[in-house]
Design goal:
This protein is of the alpha/beta class. It has one domain: FAD/NAD(P)-binding domain. A nine-stranded mixed beta sheet has the order 1-17-13-16-15-14-5-7-6. Strands 2, 3, 9, 10, 11, 12, 18 and 19 form an eight-stranded mixed beta sheet that branches. Strands 4-8 form a two-stranded antiparallel sheet. Helix 5 crosses helix 12 and helix 11 crosses helix 13. It is globular, with a radius of gyration of 21 Å. The two termini are about 25 Å apart. The model has no long low-confidence stretch (mean pLDDT about 95).
Length: about 425
């Protein structure tokens, strides 16, 4: 197995090469500095550069090194929170704005891919949220009803229909969301970076932002080998926040998520497992996700970190579960493995922060980073350009709020996921 526990696994092997970048050296004075080279930061940089704004992106590692290059690649609409709950959580105005924005967010992703010719294995066949037992089916019935009354193209499938769509009879139904789809996430991040550079943005990799200080009316960002002075700063570090903004880091509980990938399946098997190429996940709390890439590899994942005892436990669980769901595969061999961190917030919703004058950012995607990250990056660009005010954003301005007992909660998730998977090995 090609073990990529500190990388992007399969995605790093199959993505088109990243655009050429280097570390920052010397002084740059620009209009906007973006800290973070993931979906949000790159989308913001692209839209700013297209508007003629001098923009610099600083990333401490490589393009898409964090969650943007490690996730499953599901381009989902909405958040985990039920549609009717959003107005209750955020108020009617912000809640309905966020629902409209995120309901349409997958379309924005696929339009960017098409407009810029990004080679990232884009599939627009929808996604399947698969029901486990009666409780899972009831959850999907509620979700389907709430989206349908908003005109969304979602369809509740019977157990037989779910079997035909997934290739397994394990589920009591499924919710097909035709707004959604799948991509190769690292390839998408690299494509966004290439498009931003073509539009005039500068991207500096292996350039961690070490400090942020006032420089008269502007901001000075120090890095190991250079300095950026900017009028505006966009915080786009999310779950991989490092040196700057510890207040952002403190409001997340980090949830690890891993993936294993097989060799390409044979053609006959591909016609049985997800024959229409939807991405899928189930309704369990410690959920299971599965999808195929363009070459027909099965990508299978769940909550957990591939480190310490978790490595053996999660792999044993994955082998057994794949065999149980898809017995036609027999004993599977995984060729790639990787995991990343998801930033979970107190209400499972993203946040908008004004961290200081002209220092803003969205964060807390709760496992829904691709489509929200893309459209939030666009919104940040529009806000900096003066096209949209804080009052018109889909989230209210809130201060970062530290999570109590954060370290204990994170340890509980990691060890709890191991316990759940260990138990499932034997039942």
């Amino acid at each position: 197995m090609q073990d990529s526990t500190d990388g992007q696994g399969l995605w790093a092997e199959t993505a088109s090469p990243a655009p050429s970048t280097a570390g920052l050296a010397g002084l740059r004075t620009v209009d906007v500095a973006v800290v973070g080279g993931g979906f949000t930061g790159l989308s913001a940089a692209l839209h700013l550069a297209q508007a003629g704004v001098e923009t610099v992106v600083l990333d401490g590692a490589e393009i898409g090194h964090g969650g943007s290059g490690r996730n499953v690649g599901l381009v989902n609409a909405g958040m985990w929170v039920l549609p009717d709950e959003l107005p209750r959580a955020l108020g009617a105005i912000h809640g309905e704005r966020l629902l409209r924005l995120l309901g349409d967010a997958p379309r924005a992703v696929f339009e960017l891919i098409e407009r810029h010719g990004i080679d990232c294995e884009a599939e627009r066949a929808g996604t399947l949220h698969c029901a486990v037992g009666k409780a899972g089916l009831r959850e999907l019935e509620i979700r389907a009803e709430q989206w349908a009354k908003r005109g969304a193209p979602v369809h509740l499938l019977s157990a037989d229909e779910a079997t035909r769509k997934t290739g397994t009879s394990a589920y009591t139904g499924a919710l097909l969301d035709l707004r959604a789809g799948t991509i190769q996430p690292l390839a998408y991040a690299r494509g966004l970076a290439g498009a931003a550079i073509s539009a005039g943005a500068q991207i500096f990799t292996h350039t961690p932002a070490l400090s942020l200080e006032r420089d008269g009316p502007r901001w000075r960002i120090a890095t190991p080998s250079g300095t950026v002075i900017a009028n505006w700063v966009i915080a786009a570090t999310n779950a991989y926040t490092a040196n700057l903004w510890p207040e952002i880091r403190s409001e997340f509980v980090l949830l690890p998520y891993f993936n294993f990938a097989t060799d390409p399946l044979d053609e006959a098997t591909r016609e049985k497992i997800l024959p229409e190429r939807q991405g899928a996940w189930d309704t369990e709390k410690v959920l299971t996700s599965f999808r195929l890439d363009r070459q027909g590899r099965l990508i299978f994942g769940s909550v957990g970190a591939l480190r310490g005892t978790g490595r053996a436990v999660h792999e044993a669980w994955a082998r057994r579960t794949v065999k149980k769901l898809f017995p036609m595969l027999g004993e599977v061999a995984f060729r790639h493995s990787w995991y990343g961190m998801i930033g979970m917030t107190d209400n499972s919703l993203p946040k908008f922060h004004r961290l200081a004058e002209n220092v803003v950012g969205f964060s807390g995607y709760n496992g829904r980073g691709i489509a929200p990250g893309t459209v939030f990056g666009r919104l940040l660009a529009q806000h900096v350009l003066g096209e949209i005010s804080e009052e018109d954003l889909p989230l209210p301005v809130t201060p970062p709020k530290p999570v109590a007992l954060r370290g204990l909660r994170q340890a509980g998730i990691e060890w709890g996921a191991q316990a759940v998977h260990l138990l499932r090995i034997f039942i």
